[in-house]
Specification:
The protein has helices at 41-48, 121-125, 127-141, 158-169, 183-188, 221-224, 241-257, 271-282, 299-308, and strands spanning 2-6, 16-19, 30-38, 62-63, 67-75, 87-91, 104-107, 112-114, 149-153, 173-178, 193-196, 209-214, 228-236, 261-264, 290-294, 314-317. It is α/β, with parallel strands linked by helices.
């Protein structure tokens, strides 16, 4: 099979398309033909070696990518409720050596969910990491209810554009920031207020938010505390080591300073979470913006663009291209 691999940590150029033996499912696993996968910033961070010091992360040579969608073509046994031809989607463990940018993957049932008939493989492949992070943010880490207020910083990207949609789905009032080129796009997501972050970051006198979700790493609890409600919650996705340290410091300080909370969001995911995403996608409460569909050979350049920032929506990978 064709798959994307790299033999050492480094820039996008280390990625190469190679021919490998098809994976063989173990007991309790399913073999899935990948019809679509999607890019996440996490893929580039692992490839670049940003997580190399974590002992649970398999070192190169390894594959790349985690999100996928396709149909089951085989089983290693010991799995019930699944059958060849069944359409599924899910996410591989980012710690393991296999990657979803390949023609076939193997996954356990707790990593997948059934794809509804009304949801295409391309749509399903965009959901697990990006939409899963957005939905967890506003249901578990900083629950939103109708009439509450939220600020989404970095609203045009993969997680951000899903965060705006889900916050509106639950009835929140959403202020969203993005670059000037993405203002109309974020308005199309039904954000109530859309701001060019270079001119107005939403953190200004008179503003008050029940939740601030920084997807872009442009803020800290200290910079937003004055616009957070007394029991407001500040979240970010810990996109860098400095962000992790800032979140840890903010968590401790906020506990001493009052009732505001700081959360460094870590996606828990898994089959139940993916099932909820499937229902939201089927109802069109979450509609991914796919800005491009590429083949395996295009992943390196697409990751280079992600690292430059200012992306819009999601990029889908079709291994057949």
């Amino acid at each position: 099979m064709r798959a994307l691999r790299y033999d050492r940590y480094g820039p996008p150029e280390v990625l190469e398309v190679v021919d490998l033996d098809e994976p063989v499912p173990r007991e309790g696993e399913l073999k899935i033909r990948v019809r679509a996968a999607s890019l996440n910033p996490l893929d580039a961070k692992i490839r670049a070696g940003h997580l190399r010091l974590l002992p649970m992360v398999d070192r190169p040579p390894r594959g790349n990518g985690v999100d996928f969608a396709g149909e089951i073509v085989g089983t290693g046994g010991g799995v019930s409720g699944y059958f060849p031809g069944m359409r599924v989607f899910g996410s591989l463990s980012p710690f393991r050596r296999a990657g979803s940018f390949a023609e076939y993957v193997c996954a356990a049932p707790d990593r997948i969910a059934a794809t509804p008939d009304a949801v295409t493989d391309a749509v399903a492949a965009t959901l697990p990491i990006a939409a899963g992070t957005a939905v967890q943010a506003f249901t578990v880490d900083a629950p939103l209810e109708r009439g509450m207020t939220a600020l989404v910083i970095g609203a045009a990207g993969g997680v951000g554009h899903f965060a705006v949609q889900f916050a509106k789905h639950v009835g929140a009032h959403v202020t969203a920031t993005c670059g000037a080129d993405n203002l109309d796009f974020v308005r199309s997501l039904r954000a109530d207020v859309v701001l060019d972050y270079t001119a107005d970051d939403g953190i200004r006198p008179g503003a008050r938010y029940d939740a601030v979700f920084d997807v872009a790493g442009r803020s800290s609890w200290r910079t937003v505390r004055e616009v957070l409600a007394p029991e407001g919650i500040y979240l970010n996705t810990n996109g860098s080591a400095s962000a992790v340290l800032a979140t840890m410091a903010g968590t401790l300080t906020s506990r001493l300073a009052g009732r505001q909370r700081v959360v460094g969001l870590m996606l828990r995911g898994g089959a139940p979470a993916w099932q909820r995403l499937a229902a939201l996608a089927q109802a069109r409460s979450l509609v991914p913006h796919v800005r491009a569909t590429i083949g395996l050979a295009g992943v390196a350049e697409a990751q280079r663009a992600i690292e430059r920032g200012h992306g819009r929506g999601k990029v889908v990978v079709d291994p057949a291209l």
